[in-house]
Design a protein that fits this description.
The protein has 222 residues and is of the alpha/beta class. The chain folds into two domains: 130 residues, D-Maltodextrin-Binding Protein, domain 2 (3-Layer(aba) Sandwich); 88 residues, Periplasmic binding protein-like II (D-Maltodextrin-Binding Protein, domain 2). Helix content is 35%, strand content 32%. The protein contains ten helices and nine strands. A nine-stranded mixed β-sheet has the order 2-3-1-4-9-5-8-6-7, sandwiched between helices. Strand 2 and strand 3 form a beta hairpin. The chain starts with a helix and ends with a helix. It binds phosphoribosyl ATP and magnesium ion (MG). Phosphoribosyl ATP (PRT) binds next to helix 2, helix 4, strand 5, strand 8 and helix 8.
């Protein structure tokens, strides 16, 4: 194989550390691919796999769509929450992998009368990392909100008077309970999807197709 052919065959998969990496391992295995390096113990950001032509890059969860959009990665795995904020431009989203499942909810401090606050038509202050999703949710309800963009620890905001409510991801509910918060509205169910660079899908179809097929048949059924 000459250099140009080899480059054309090379695939890069973008993943984030933690739950997405862990939940993607069985899918890779179904495609006959094992990781050589482990991101939890290695500081490497480019990880080799048992397939010499497939490398995994480890990036922040919110950066996965950006790497795939620009073709720095051919494909990746990202949460619906992250994809909605990104907008999905330049991305083909063929498969819901049903991994890293959680829900997007509105939560307030226990005792805060959310239904009344919403009915009164007062402006609600909402802290969140998911500004697009929150804006659309409250617009659909016809509720006026002031959105406060945060990058983490949303649960703190109502406790210190930064906001009346938060929009955040919930899985066990343990974080909300530990901070005296309660879910008052379910916005959507969230899971992670496979995303593919649109140009790579055409140019590297032969290389990608068997991996996508294996992911699809191994994906947790909805
Ligand atoms: O952590 P970091 O700031 O690097 O980035 P990230 O939070 O975007 O990444 P990561 O790896 O934590 O999450 C990646 C994806 O996993 C998200 O984009 C979601 O699609 C999905 N996911 C599934 C979750 C959760 N479950 C989840 N529980 N992402 C975050 N959480 C957080 C939530 O924000 C809250 O703080 O966990 C806390 C609530 O958990 P419970 O179990 O206490 O309810
Ligand atoms: Mg996190």
């Amino acid at each position: 194989m000459n250099q140009a052919d080899r480059e054309n065959q090379q695939l890069v998969l973008a993943l984030s550390k933690g739950r997405i990496f862990e939940d993607t391992l069985p899918l890779l295995k179904a495609a006959g691919i094992e990781m050589v390096d482990n991101p939890e113990s290695s500081r490497k950001l480019i990880l080799e796999t048992s397939d010499p032509l497939l490398r995994v890059v480890i990036v922040r969860a919110t950066d996965v769509p950006t790497y795939v959009q620009y073709g720095a990665a051919d494909f990746g795995v990202a949460g619906k929450d992250v994809l909605l904020e990104h907008g999905g431009e330049g991305l083909y989203q063929p498969i819901d992998l049903n991994i890293a499942q959680c829900r997007m909810s509105v939560a307030v401090q226990k005792g805060f009368d959310y239904q009344n606050a919403v009915r009164q038509g007062a402006r609600l202050r909402v802290a969140t990392k998911f500004v697009q999703t929150a804006r659309e949710h409250f617009a659909r309800k016809g509720v006026h909100v002031d959105l406060i963009k945060l990058y983490g620890s949303m649960e703190l905001a109502p406790l210190v008077g930064l906001s009346d409510a938060i929009v955040d991801l919930v899985s066990t509910g343990g974080t909300l309970r530990a901070n005296n918060l309660e879910e008052v509205e379910h916005i959507m169910d969230v899971s992670s999807r496979l995303i593919v660079n649109q140009a790579a899908l055409k140019m590297k179809r032969e290389r990608l197709a068997p991996i996508l097929a294996a992911f699809e048949s191994a994906a947790v059924k909805g």
